[in-house]
Design a protein that fits this description.
single chain
Amino acid sequence: MRRLFRAVYGESVLHLLVLLASFALCGYAITRLLERDAWGVAEWVVGSALIHDVVLVPLYGGADWLLHMAARGRRPGSPARIALVNHIRVPTFISLLLLLVYWPLISHDAGATYRNATLLSPGVFLGRWLLITAVLFAASALLLVFRRWRAARGNRG
């Protein structure tokens, strides 16, 4: 029976149960969210989709194109060029994701609310985000240098 189920479904029964449980949890969260402010949720979803598709996709598509043009000294599609581009993409993605998540605190928009809720100052978030971004890019650069050094050492031997 298990083999037949795996052949038809492609995964185990446990996978299906976890998937159904996650759908149930998401459905519960959506009903709770929509019962409070359905119009606000609809505005947020449509606005986010429009901003993403109209503004952000061309923006990061263009930035990626510029990154590839800056790395044009390398043969297109070469492992060295792909590694260089990816060692810039990954810390950029993580840094921008952190900026998006913590924007109200980084921009001091949630200053009074944050201070009243936690009794802490939100003034440290910009400096910490910049420090995390610098560490991400430095670690990525060190990893790229190490990988290139190891590859060059392997080619000699």
